[in-house]
Amino acid sequence: SVPFLIRLFPGVLTKFVYLNFLAFPFFADFRRPELLVNNTISLYLTTEPGVTVGVWHTVPGSRGAEARGRDQRWYEEALADAHPVIIYLHGNGGTR
Fold first, then answer.
1. Mean pLDDT of the chain
2. pLDDT tens digit string along 24-38?
3. Less CB within 10 Å around the terminal CB: N or C of the chain?
4. Residues 6+ apart with CB under 8 A from 23
5. Residue 60 to residue 83: CA distance in whole angstroms
């Protein structure tokens, strides 16, 4: 009966394979990364109409003292300096 149910509802298989309906850790507020990771802010990018992608920008520990207490504008300007940017793609879990 399982193959028959998968044939009827292919979306169910995707949910159980990738478990993208679970948010782990369960009670973390991913809109406030500074509570989880030092020197980090949350940004949102609009990639196309109706699609918004959440992004965390974390500066390295060597710039931690400089970043402490700064606002979003400082972090955006830090993206444009000569330091390298590493992009980490976390997958389809819906969390960062």
1. 81
2. 667 777 778 888 788
3. N
4. 30, 93, 94, 95
5. 10
Are the C-beta atoms of residues 33 and 57 closer than 8 Å to each other? no
Whether the predicted pLDDT of 49 surpasses 90: yes
DSSP sequence for 8-56? H-HHHHHHHHH-TT--SSTT--TT-GGGTSTTEEEEEEEEETTEEEEEE
**pTM: predicted TM-score of the whole model, two decimal places:** 0.62
> What is the gyration radius of the CA atoms in the chain, in angstroms?
18
- Residue 29 backbone dihedrals phi, psi, to 5 degrees: -100, 100
Distances (CA, A) of 74 to 3, 7, 34: 53, 51, 15
Q: Is the per-residue pLDDT at 48 higher than 80?
A: yes
Token pair listed for 76: 């955006």
Across 68-93, average pLDDT: 82
